[in-house]
Amino acid sequence: MKLLPLLAGVLALHSSVLVGGERAPAYEPAQFFRTQIQPILEKRCYKCHSHEHEPEGELFLDSKIGWQTGGENGPAVKPGDLKNSPLIQAIRHLDSDSAMPPKKKLPPVEIALLETWVLLGAPDPREAPAMSK
Fold this sequence. Notes:
Layout: H1 3-15, E1 18-19, E2 22-23, H2 29-44, H3 64-69, H4 86-91, H5 108-119
Antiparallel strand pairs: 1-2
Helix pairs in contact: 1-5, 2-5
C-alpha cells in the first residue's frame, strides 16, 4: 500500500523537528492511538463491536482487553503482524465472509493508519472496557 510508506515518512519527519532547541519526540504511542486510531474505531466499529451494543462475534473493540482477548476467532490484533491480525485482514476486504465493515470498505487512509498502528505494536492506553452510559 502506498500510504504506509507515506505515514512512516511523516513520523520520521516529525522526529526531526526541533522544539526549543531540543529534538521533539517522534512518536508518542498513547497520543497516536487517541488521535488517529480511536476515532476510526469509534466511527467505524463500535456500532457492532462495543459494550454499548450486543457485540458481533463476541468481539469488543472499545477496550484494549477486548481486542487482545478477541471474539469467536481469538485475538483481533497480533501486534507487529499484519498478516496474522484478523482485524487487518477484515478491513482489507480480502474475504467477503469476514470483510469489515461488511457493506463498504474503509477509506485507504484509515486502512493505512490501522496497519501502521499494528506495525507499531498496537499501542492502546485504554485500561478498562468502556461502560454503557
